[in-house]
Input
Amino acid sequence: MAKEKIKVLVADDSQVTRMLLVHLLNADPHIQVLGTVNDGQAALNFLQDASVRPDVVLMDIHMPHMDGFEATRLIMETTPLPIVICTATSDPQELAVAFRSMEAGALACVEKPVASTDADFERRASNLLQTIRLMSEVKVVRRWPRARAAANHAHLTDAREAARVRAGSAISVIGIGASTGGPPVLQAILSGLPKDFPLPLLIVQHIAPGFLPGMVEWLNQTTGLRIHIAAHGATPLPGHAYIAPDDFHMGIAASGRIALARDAHESGLRPAVSYLFRSLAQTCGAHATGVLLTGMGKDGAAELKLMRDAGAFTIAQDRESSVVHGMPGEAIDLGAACVVLPGDRIAGALATRVAQKQAAGEIPS
Output
């Protein structure tokens, strides 16, 4: 029996773009467009009235009447299903709205395959189709309405204040690697750490070219830490997070400064988590911590094992909270993780690790 096609609802206010997306999606033998709408409210109405439920909603951000963020929030509170944000904008502030939508429950954000060079169009179209196929298999859960979420946030803020860490640490740096589904988990980790967290964080997040400034803008708006696109030669500061820029590997030099490189792609990736973790294992050894989050493939898994073998504390995200358990699952199979945790408990584990070092007298209080 042939496998049932993935049914997609397309929400975009441009008729030309809707026609293009319908053409691309229906050309894939595994995908069928169930319907199209021109704004977020129409998407909500479709989901409430449709006799056939879509498997995925492909959602634009900027639409009249109700934008993609508000529509995503309401869908995840009422009729939750996988949502993929599809945008052509390159403005960091506008892209921050796309990442807010991921915070509200959207699973991924992809580039809209509109007018560009032939190579860019093919790459964007291929990524869109692959993301739709992948996200259709993800099991989503209902989100709490905003009032309840705000109350929970206040509780978490109190807990963070109670667990505030005030001093430096012998763990010189924390390295984090993430891919598909990573931005919301990164946001949860960074917002779960106190503003005066005594360690710097180096982050590799696989993301579409041009989307990084928007993600940094969003993280700066929604976390207490200071988030930067990493610069070559910068000294990592406590309470700051540095994200590898587009098309550059990132590591740590013997001097303790950030090192960016255009070395060869690793597993087709630049930046690669493998490059960061290998650098931390070689340069920092037991004074580093490695965290491998949700993502497809195996980038960083073997190198997280290198970190653990060098004495570092290592964390892998668990299967249940991962959108895709490829990278952390591979690391777990290799014995690379000291602990396996859901995404929302990783910040607490990092804070506890620092507190234990302080209590043991290994770092100043």
Notes: The first strand starts at residue 6 and ends at 11. The first helix runs from residue 15 to 27. The mean pLDDT is 88. The domain at 6-135 is CATH 3.40.50.2300 (Rossmann fold).
